Structure formats: structure tokens, C-alpha cells
């Protein structure tokens, strides 16, 4: 592991102290509260962090202790992580929508004695956990609303009023680049989450490597709206914020993110595929509700944009007439749309977290947004590959970042080695050894290959790639992403390995399909009723048939066309264990939970009755049941393979 270049700046608290001197009055964080943006400069941030660190030290927090941090993105929660690190402690951010059982596992596994929570909702969960995990002794809340009658707790302000801030500097000086910086729990797609331990050297290298790759600089603005427990937010908002001096903007709430995005106009943007899919859904709904002239203009200029926009971003030749037409499109369509999406000032945008459909990716580049794919993992401190400027291809995830080595195992699995490779899985040497070799190579679990351009192409999760009984390649994520491009399809789960043909579960998008239904005077009272409506089945069938036509155009995938489908009577939910907290499908769990439906898709049934347990929004448990229709599809004719010239 290569150490940080300068021992004076090899930890985040040291970097913060440096920024407080060199950029004392430059904006560091903004927070929107009661509709007004509050700006905090680096000197203020350093002072707040020191005060909190002094208070934690007075409460007994010491080197090696772990601090649970839970809540929405708030400056004072980011500062709590820096305060823990100032004392040699390790922050453990947790997904704010975690149910009590999930949170209890992390608290107990991490051995955390302290926690900082945003508000009453999170404190209530922690108080429930204290009954089972008594080692969690000290609870601190950031937002005092609703906390008046609680006992045995400390407010953030109370903690800051304790201790001696001047004594913190000595603890900061003891820190080293190889020390544990953060513990981030993996999404738990196939089992219990694992606590990945990353060092300062890991994260500072990754922050600098990513910045150099795309020319990020001090003062660049980003909106921090993704979970603080996710490695992407930690790298972009926290690590790069401190390494580069970025301006980190925290939205007022999850409901105001789009408004806040437009107001801030970030220069640096990140969105996982699910967010991009939702944005396209919103655009599509608005266009469907627009007048005939506006719809016609949108369709005309978007067709032009898909053909011309990516070439203009990449600097490839484009004819004069098309350039002029694209400028007109920018005036009428692309510019206003980018402004609505909050992307008018974006210089570089990334998407990652899972595979993104080529159609979704191309949509944003067509508008003139410099959207790139990156490939990474928690265990890599995010960065493994990124698209270089001028080499952005929808079917790849780019080239290795500086100092990253890639190789493809004989099994087709992608392996990498870099200065960002995590230290270990906490309390799990067996899993660490299974993932990381003695010489530092990490098994990604993804199947892929390097193409002749030197770009990495990811096929799917290695465990998910399979074959139909006739030998046809079956890559479920590839099929699912094609389906999710359509705004009416929120989620899809494909089945086919070891079977004669491919089938899918579909989750409709309640907003998009609801809007579509209302414009056709289709009455419904619930998600379940809307999902079961025959006209909704017709709508989804038409979109699946379009995907089948695309698959038929590729002779290698023609045999993987979807032959039967059903629309689930409930949305897949993380609270029901069907999705991870990062909204990744837990395919194995879904296959077992809905085995009766999978069996019906393959035994020729036309409908099937099912009852499953579910968790309602207020936390209550219940059962939802109903009859689900199954539709058959006629496969499209495959195109013949072209002969090599």
C-alpha cells in the first residue's frame, strides 16, 4: 500500500485543518433549512468539528472506538464523522431507512458504544436497539424537534459545550495514513452485510485519482443526496470534499432534491441508474401531458440528439446542418430540460452502483450532459475504471484509473489491484481471504472482459450469468436494464438459467402508470388493482415485445427473448428483504419468496394465487394476496449472423 505523499495531510482531520488555514472563508458546506440556504466556510467547519471532538473525548470516546452515524445528509453528521476521526475513532454510517433489526446487527457487529442520530425517528430506533445491545451507551441527537421529553440522551450542542477543543490537535497529529478511516457495510445482496474497513491511504488515493482523471478542482459544487452509508457518497461528498475543497450541498429533504438541484446547479454530479430511470420517467410523464406541438418538437429534437449529441461531446465530426439543428434544439428543448433536471452547469457526471441500460445512459449524453460510467466497489474505495473523455461507450465502463491493475480470470471473473483496496472485512478473516488474495488482488464477483479498445465490459454478476437449456447465454441484468428504460417499468426480475426459455416479473412504476391510466379514464384504488388491470398488461406487453425485437436483432441473444411474464401485485421493497438498501435486487431471495410464481411461469398456468407477508410504511406487518395473470409472448425472428468480410 502506497502511503499518502505528505504525512502532514495523510488523514481527513489533517486535511480539514489545512483547509481551515488556506481556504478559511471559502464555502465548504451548504444546508437548506426552512427554504433558505445556509453556507458554512472551512474555518467554521473546523471549529465545529473540534468542539464536537472535544465533547466526545470528555464522554470517554477514544482511539479505536466506533461511532454510529445515522440520518439524512446533514453537514453536522459529516462533521460528526470528522470529529470521531480526529480522536482516532472510526465512524460507521448506517442507512437511514434501515429497519431496527438491520440497524441492530450493524451496531452489535461493529461493537459501537456511541451514536449520533439526526432526529427523533432515528433515536427511537436506537433506543429500541439499546434493549438488545446494551453496549450502545451514549446517544446524541442533532435535531431537537420532538426530543423535549426524552431522558438519558445528549444533544449535539450539549456535547459541543463539553471538553477542551485545544486538546484535540494533539490527537489529530497522532493519526497516520494507514489507520482505519471508515467502516462501510456492504449491501448484503447474498447474505449478512460485511463491514469493509478502509484506511485514509485508500480513500485519499481514490479521491485524488478520480479528481485527476476528470479535472475536478476546489470550489466545484455537488449535491449530497445519496445515503451517507454508501461508499459513493462517502468518496464524493466527504473524501473528495476534504481532499479538493469541494462545496458540499445538503438538500432540505428527500422530497425537495429536484428543486434543490436546480437551485444549486452543481458542476459535479453523481446518480445511480435508479435515479436516472426516475428522472426519465418524470420527463416522459410531463411530455405525455404536454400539448401535441410540444410533444412533436420533443420527439423530433430528441431523435436528432441521440444521433448527434454524444458525438458533439466526444469531439467527433458532425455536419454543419446537424450542428445548427442541434443548437436550435438546445434553445428549444435541451437547454430548458437540462435546467429542469438541475444539470445546466454539470461538467462531469457519473453513474454507477449497478449496470445502466444503454438507452438511459445515451439519453443524458444526447442532451449534452457529460455523463460517464464508472465501475467500482466499496472494497476498491470506489474507483476501478472510468470513461475517459472522448471514449465514452454505452456498452463499457471505461478504462482503469491510474495505478489500478485489471485482469480477467480463466472463469471470466474480473479482478483488480490498486492502492484503494480495502484493509479487511471487520471480524471476518474468512470472507476477507475469499475476496482479497495475499498479493492484493480483489475478486469482484462480476463477469466481464477487456475489449480491443482497452475498455472493461461487464456482462453481469458472475453468479447470475447462466445458460438456457439450448446453450443460449442468459444475462438477466442485461435484459432487466432494457426493460427498465421504459418509464412504466420500475423493476424487473428475469429468470431462465437451466430453463427452456426466459420469463420475467415486472413491477410497474406507480406514478408513470397512474398518470397513463388517468389520461385513459381507467379507475383504480391501489397499486394491486392497477397492476392487475388488463389494459396495463397490454401496455407492459407492448414494451416487452419491443425489448424482444432488440434481442432478436442480436443473433447471440435472440434465444433469450422473454416468452412469459407477470406483473407482481406488490412493489419489491427493501423492508421486505427483496431489495438491498442500495436498491439492488436480491435475486435468490426473490426466487425463493415467489417460488409459486416462478413455477407457474414455467408450468403453463394462465394465472396463479399468492399470499406473501409484507411491511407497511408505518412498520406494521401484514399479508397481501391476490390472483396474478400470466401472459405469453411470441418470439421475434432472429437476424442471421453477418459473415466476416
Supply the helix-strand structural class: alpha/beta
The overall pLDDT, averaged over residues, is 92
Low-confidence stretches: 641-645
In what order do the strands lie side by side in the largest sheet? 4-3-5-6-7
The overall strand count is 28
Our measurement of the CA-to-CA distance between the termini, rounded to an integer number of angstroms, reads 48 Å
DSSP summary: helix tally: 21
Q: Tell me which CATH architecture of the largest domain applies here.
A: 3-Layer(aba) Sandwich
Description:
- The chain is α/β, with parallel strands linked by helices.
- It has three domains: 247 residues, 3-Layer(aba) Sandwich (Rossmann fold), CATH 3.40.50; 156 residues, no CATH class; 167 residues, GMP Synthetase, Chain A, domain 3 (2-Layer Sandwich).
- It has 21 helices and 28 strands.
- Strands 4-3-5-6-7 form a five-stranded parallel β-sheet, with helices on both faces.
- A hairpin with a 5-residue loop joins strand 22 and strand 23.
- It is globular and about 75 Å long.
- The relative contact order is 0.08.
- The C terminus is likely disordered.
Amino acid at each position: 500500500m502506497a502511503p499518502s505523499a505528505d504525512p502532514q495531510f495523510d488523514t481527513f482531520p489533517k486535511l480539514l485543518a489545512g483547509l481551515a488555514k488556506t481556504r478559511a472563508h471559502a464555502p465548504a458546506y451548504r444546508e437548506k433549512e426552512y427554504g433558505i440556504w445556509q453556507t458554512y466556510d472551512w474555518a467554521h467547519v473546523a471549529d465545529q468539528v473540534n468542539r464536537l471532538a472535544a465533547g466526545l473525548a470528555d464522554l470517554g470516546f477514544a482511539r479505536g472506538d466506533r461511532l454510529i452515524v445515522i440520518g439524512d445528509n446533514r453537514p453536522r453528521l459529516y462533521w460528526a464523522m470528522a470529529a470521531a476521526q480526529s480522536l482516532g475513532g472510526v465512524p460507521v454510517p448506517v442507512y437511514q431507512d434501515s429497519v431496527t433489526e438491520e440497524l441492530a446487527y450493524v451496531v452489535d457487529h461493529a461493537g459501537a458504544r456511541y451514536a449520533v442520530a439526526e432526529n427523533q425517528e432515528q433515536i427511537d430506533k436506537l433506543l429500541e436497539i439499546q434493549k438488545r445491545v446494551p453496549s450502545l451507551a451514549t446517544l446524541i441527537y442533532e435535531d431537537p424537534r420532538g426530543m423535549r421529553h426524552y431522558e438519558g440522551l445528549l444533544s449535539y450542542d450539549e456535547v459541543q459545550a463539553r471538553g477542551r477543543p485545544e486538546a484535540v490537535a494533539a490527537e489529530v497529529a497522532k493519526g497516520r495514513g494507514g489507520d482505519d478511516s471508515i467502516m462501510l457495510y456492504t449491501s448484503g445482496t447474498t447474505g449478512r452485510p460485511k463491514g469493509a474497513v478502509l484506511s485514509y491511504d485508500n480513500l485519499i488515493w481514490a479521491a485524488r485519482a478520480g479528481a485527476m482523471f476528470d479535472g475536478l478542482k476546489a470550489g466545484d459544487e455537488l449535491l449530497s443526496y445519496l445515503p451517507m452509508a454508501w461508499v459513493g457518497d462517502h468518496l464524493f461528498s466527504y473524501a473528495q470534499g476534504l481532499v479538493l475543497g469541494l462545496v458540499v450541498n445538503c438538500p432540505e429533504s428527500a422530497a425537495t432534491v429536484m428543486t434543490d438541484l436546480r437551485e444549486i446547479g452543481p458542476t459535479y454530479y453523481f446518480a445511480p441508474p435508479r435515479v436516472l430511470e426516475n428522472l426519465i420517467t418524470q420527463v416522459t410523464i410531463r411530455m405525455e401531458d404536454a400539448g401535441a406541438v410540444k410533444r412533436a418538437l420533443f420527439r423530433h429534437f430528441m431523435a436528432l440528439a441521440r444521433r448527434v449529441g454524444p458525438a458533439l461531446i466526444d469531439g467527433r465530426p458532425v455536419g454543419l446542418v446537424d450542428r445548427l439543428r442541434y443548437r436550435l434544439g438546445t434553445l428549444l428543448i435541451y437547454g430548458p430540460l437540462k435546467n429542469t433536471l438541475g444539470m445546466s452547469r454539470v461538467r462531469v457526471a457519473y453513474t454507477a452502483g449497478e449496470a445502466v441500460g444503454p438507452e438511459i445512459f445515451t439519453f443524458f449524453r444526447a442532451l449534452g450532459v457529460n455523463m460517464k460510467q464508472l465501475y467500482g466497489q466499496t472494497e476498491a474505495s470506489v474507483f476501478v475504471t472510468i470513461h475517459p473523455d472522448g471514449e465514452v461507450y454505452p456498452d463499457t465502463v471505461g478504462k482503469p484509473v491510474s495505478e489500478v491493475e485489471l485482469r480477467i480470470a480463466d472463469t471470466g471473473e474480473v479482478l483488480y489491484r490498486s492502492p484503494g483496496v480495502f484493509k479487511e472485512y471487520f471480524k471476518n478473516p474468512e470472507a476477507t481471504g475469499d475476496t482479497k488474495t495475499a498479493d492484493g488482488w480483489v475478486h469482484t464477483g462480476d463477469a466481464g472482459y477487456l475489449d480491443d479498445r482497452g475498455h472493461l465490459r461487464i456482462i453481469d454478476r458472475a453468479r447470475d450469468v447462466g445458460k438456457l437449456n439450448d446453450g443460449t447465454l442468459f444475462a438477466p441484468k442485461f435484459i432487466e436494464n432494457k426493460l427498465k428504460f421504459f418509464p412504466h417499468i420500475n423493476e424487473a426480475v428475469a429468470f431462465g438459467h437451466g430453463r427452456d426459455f426466459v420469463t420475467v416479473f415486472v413491477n410497474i412504476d406507480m406514478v408513470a402508470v397512474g398518470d397513463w391510466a388517468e389520461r385513459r379514464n381507467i379507475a383504480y384504488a391501489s397499486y394491486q388493482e392497477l397492476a392487475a388491470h388488463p389494459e396495463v398488461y397490454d401496455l407492459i406487453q407492448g414494451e416487452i415485445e419491443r425489448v424482444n425485437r432488440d434481442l432478436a436483432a442480436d443473433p447471440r441473444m435472440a434465444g433469450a427473448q422473454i416468452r412469459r411474464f407477470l406483473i407482481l401485485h406488490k412493489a419489491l421493497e427493501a423492508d421486505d428483504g427483496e431489495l438491498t438498501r442500495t436498491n439492488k435486487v436480491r435475486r435468490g431471495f426473490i426466487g425463493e419468496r415467489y417460488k409459486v410464481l416462478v413455477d407457474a411461469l414455467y408450468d403453463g398456468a394462465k394465472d396463479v394465487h399468492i399470499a406473501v407477508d409484507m411491511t407497511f410504511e408505518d412498520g406494521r406487518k401484514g399479508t397481501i394476496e391476490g390472483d396474478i395473470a400470466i401472459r405469453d409472448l411470441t418470439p421475434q425472428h432472429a437476424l442471421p449472423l453477418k459473415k466476416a468480410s
